[in-house]
Amino acid sequence: MDTTSQIYISLEVIIGVAAVAGNGLVLVAIRLTPSLQTVTNCFIASLAFADLLVGIMVAPLAALSYQGLPRDFMGCVFINSLVVMFTQISIFNLVAVAVERFIAINYPFFYQRHLTVRVALYIVALTWVAAILIGLTPVFGWNLGPTVNNVCAFVFVIDMAYMVYFNFFGFVLIPLFIMFVLYSYIFYIVRKHMAKIAALEIVQESEGRQKQRQFRKEVKAAKSLAIVIGVFVICWLPIHILNSITLLCKDCSYPMELLLAAILLSHANSTVNPFLYAIGNSKYQIAFRKMCCQRCFPISNNMTFSDEYNTGAHPSRSHKNKSTSVLHPKGVSNGHSPAKKITTIPENVRSPTANSPNDVFYIK
How confident is the model at residue 19 (pLDDT cuts 50, 70, 90)? Predict the structure, then answer.
């Protein structure tokens, strides 16, 4: 085995381990932290699970394919199609998040009433089914047929016309364009609302500040998700550009090392997203620290791991108004008759807002 092969396979192993560890932490954090169990994080969890499978399956199988294995033709087509399938799952989930953010900001009352966690899970299931059908199209027949000596390689079994015209142009560029339009419109709407809120703040200071905080959280969430999409584009465009060159320019050539670097970059995208979540969201940071270092965050006997993140209402549902009754002792003058219950709203419980379940995943 030459030096290039050793370096490539070693890096694939490192990427696989990092993808499994990072995305595994994200999934465990969402599972154990009620405040992270929101509509947005349903799509984030789906994206993390796809990235986890990339680490478990795609990275090792890519190294195997680089060695010309397996010798079975359909097995070779299948393992090379998995990369396309998981890429498509990631793209569809990013589109779903962009649409979810668009609805949350532009139609908050519709969002609160109809876009629940259950609906989000149905959408996630639909994205997986669609991605599986698109990604495994070569297995269903759109391939180059058996190779000489049954040598397994991506370019020997996967038709570049499928990769460029069908996959890249149809299901990569178009979704990315849709996401770009949605986020551009989101930022435009938010800027308009911020201008209105600034004017409102002069007249009604408290209400203006409250709305301003709400919209700032929404725009921070949109910015963070836009960063995830930007990183996705940087990681995946090089390999698609090389595929396009292979198909459209028969006389063009490029070094094998450049192709291997582009493949590694595309797989490395699966290891990047967990770090973006940890950097961008304090709730993820706390959940990660608690899982990795319980002693750093001691929990009292009356508080469980879930209770620290939960004020009583499950985040997958709309928060309901909660109040506590305070009983003033006799003889204490407070403007009310003695022993009269006064209903107050605790500071840690907020009134429901159209975007209260969504103030997660934002950059500080």
Answer: very high
Q: What global pTM score does this model have?
A: 0.74
At 106, give phi and psi (nearest 5°): -90, -30
Tell me the C-alpha distance between 103 and 97, whole Å.
10
Bridge-partner residues for 342, per DSSP?
326
In a 13 Å sphere around the CA of 314, the CA atoms on its Cβ side amount to 8
Burial class (CB in 10 A: 0-12, 13-18, 19+), 223: middle
Q: Cα–Cα distance between 90 and 229 in angstroms, integer?
A: 10
Task: Residue 44: name the closest of 364, 358, 309 by CA.
Answer: 358
> What is the enclosing helix (H) or strand (E) of 327?
strand 324-327
Whether residue 57 contacts residue 270, with contact meaning beta carbons closer than 8 Å, is answered with no
Q: Is the pLDDT of residue 171 over 60?
A: yes
- Give me the phi and psi of 69, to 5 degrees please: -115, 155
Tens-place pLDDT, residues 183-239 = 888 888 877 777 776 666 555 555 556 666 666 666 666 677 678 788 888 999 999
> Residue 247 — pLDDT band, cuts 50, 70, 90?
very high
The tokens describing 156, both together, are: 């020997």
SS3 content of the chain, % helix, strand, coil (to 5): 70, 0, 25
Angle at 294 (CA atoms; ends 292, 297), nearest 5 degrees: 115
191 alpha carbon, distance to own chain's centre: 24
Q: CA nearest 89: which of 100, 81, 77, 79?
A: 81
Query: Does an H or E element contain 192, and which?
Result: helix 174-203
Enclosing H/E stretch for 343: strand 341-344
Q: What is the CA radius of gyration of the chain?
A: 25
Q: How far apart are CA 144 and CA 246, in angstroms?
A: 15
Q: Are 156 and 144 in contact (CB under 8 A)?
A: yes
Residue 218: its pLDDT value, please?
62
What are the residues whose beta carbons fall under 8 Å from the beta carbon of 68, sequence distance 6 or more?
Answer: 151, 152, 153
